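Suppose a colleague, Dr. K., hands you the sequence of a protein chain of 427 amino acids and asks what its three-dimensional shape might be. Before reaching for any lab equipment, you can write down a predicted structure in token form. Begin with the sequence itself:
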Amino acid sequence: MLGNKWRLLSLALIAVIGIIAGGVYAVHHGDTEVRVAVQRHDDGRVEVAVQQRDANGGWGERELPPARFLPADVTGEWRVSTPVSVGEAHAADDMMGEPMPEASMPSDGTAELYCVIHHGADTDPFWFAFNQAARGSALALGLTNVEVSGEPDVAAHAAAITDCVERGALGIASTIPDLAGLQDALTAARGSAFLITFNSGADVAGLVGSTVHYGLDDRTAGSLAGGEFNAAGVTGTVLCVIHEEVNIGLNDRCDGLEDSYGGSVERVNLSAGDLIDLAYHRQAGAEIAGAIMANEAAGVLVLNGALAQTATGTVAAIGSEAKVGVIGAAVAAPFLVDEGDLLFAIADGSQEQATHVLLALKNVDANPGARALLTLSASQAQATTTMLIRPIVLNQDYISNFPPDWRVQACALAKQFSAAAVSGFCE
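The predicted structure, expressed as tokens, is then:
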């Protein structure tokens, strides 16, 4: 067992040496010889240093990176030291003269910190699914120090970003529900952390220096919803029901609905509340009912899967003929669409977003070259790369292509997540 542990540690050490040597070559761009000095300490840690051959053929002093220790218990993963400047002739090549950041082998042996911060409550089904997928992806990718949190309050969200910066996070991923409230914190974070954005804020990600933005194409989702209402012959007012008053992404969905729907669109802001609280759904139902009657609405679009049954139930309870659609995942959606209670459901990609975000953070962790981007200011960074998930519409036509026994299979799957939500469809 001890022999296996030593072999694994040796492989990790070889990896560290290779990275340092490659980094030195990349910085120097010349023929000067360098070597790596290594010593094992009594506690099992391995310390590395770099030496450069001088003009007389001898070896200079050992240059000690601040982060230069490989912990004894780290095996099977890549680590790098803090970059070391070698020679003076090529100092101008060092990323426009700006200092290189410290990299992923802290001297105390702890794993690099990565923060994933969004604007959703943990009790929101979308964000609950996102959180689970993000933590599962982090585990699968070998990222051992990833914090995933939700801060519905904009000020608290900004404070959480700042806190991660102050604790030395190497990568930060954040939503942008409110640019005004988060721009300062995100722009400051870009100066010391690899910044990724996701979900809300695709159109403004470049304003905070985000390297890449992942999310649902919210405006297209709204536009597809408008097309579904048009195809169903809806001609009156359609309500666009917003459950989070401060959220750019939800307003983008309503904008898309206005782009494509042939009639008028009225935005309805629901009172704040907990999406798993029965009392909140009663209140939301009452507010939706009031808006339907006040506007003589012919359609209702809700923007969270948790509100699908609240909206369909409200329409039935007040005897309205309004057609209901939802942007958001709901376990009952296929059954509601199949039975005609729900006109359509558009998937919102919670798990896909989580997977993409964690893969991007893993790339930062595994690729020393990516860290060079940290030395660039937001104004020097390339334009944000935006990757948007194409919305998928679940409607009657879509369900018609399901296999004959799809309800049995769907019930078996749905009961694992929310048996109560499908109890009326799955006896």
